[in-house]
Amino acid sequence: MKLLALDTSTEACSAALYIDGEIDQRFELAPREHTQLILPMVDNLLSTAGINIKQLDGLAFGRGPGSFTGVRISTGIIQGMAFGADLPVVPVSTLASIAQAVYEDHQHSHVLAGIDARMGEVYWSQYTEQDGIMLLTGEEAVISPEQVTAQAGVDWVAAGSAWASYSDVLLNQLGTDIKHQYPSYHPQSRTIARLAADAFNKGAAFPAEQAIPVYLRNNVAKKSTKIK
């Protein structure tokens, strides 16, 4: 299987190429430079692998939550590529991308993923590992840090920019269940590609016109569906 994944949903910009389980990624922390960086990243990945876009089996992107403008950038690029090459698309949660990275890097099976949503709010979700894939438990939401909750009695670790911005408030709200924090983690294409490959194998790919972003502020809570 060959998949190309993109993410521009936060200050991080990345692209990754998944080929039969191996992943090559380009990643930069570059606020407001995503439109200049993302297509050269894609070109570099494809040329390094010696393939073109029509040789791919599918595309994936970080569908949000995140910056409104950032999510729109990756959505638009992926839709254009998908229409042009007649490829299916897998939208992947940016919160799931963070949780998957923590699992792959540190083998933590229970992750509270949070992204600073600005305006005194956080994008928030809980993930638990099953067969190497982090799965959403409960719902994704945009809420104030004072309103977050987590399942009790679980050895949670925390990840994402919400923990850089609101660590004290979140810890006060959640108590002592947090075993470790990874506040510098951002969504990234390598884990979007991993999650998309799993979804693709399960038949959860969509035509380009159904590859839509998720903002959460327009839809305060989104239930777990196909791939999170």
Task: Describe what you observe in this structure.
There is one protein chain. The protein has 228 residues and is of the alpha/beta class. It has two domains: 2-93 and 187-219, Nucleotidyltransferase, domain 5, CATH 3.30.420; 95-182, Nucleotidyltransferase, domain 5, CATH 3.30.420.40. Helices cover 32% and strands 32% of the residues. The chain has five helices and eleven strands, in the order E-E-E-H-E-H-E-H-E-E-E-E-H-E-H-E. It has helices at residues 34-49, 68-85, 94-106, 161-174, 189-201, and strands spanning 2-7, 12-19, 22-29, 58-62, 89-92, 110-118, 121-130, 133-143, 156-159, 178-182, 221-223. The strands form two sheets. The chain has a six-stranded mixed β-sheet. A five-stranded mixed β-sheet has the order 3-2-1-4-5, with helices on both faces. The longest helix has 18 residues, at 68-85. The protein is globular and about 50 Å long.
The residue fraction in helices comes out at 25-40%
Overall geometry comes to: globular
The helix-and-strand class reads: alpha/beta
Q: Given this structure, which CATH class of the largest domain is correct?
A: Alpha Beta
Give me the CATH architecture of the largest domain, please: 2-Layer Sandwich
Q: SSE order in H/E notation?
A: EEEHEHEHEEEEHEHE
Q: Count of helical segments?
A: 5
Average of pLDDT: 94
Hey, roughly how much beta strand do the residues contain? 25-35%
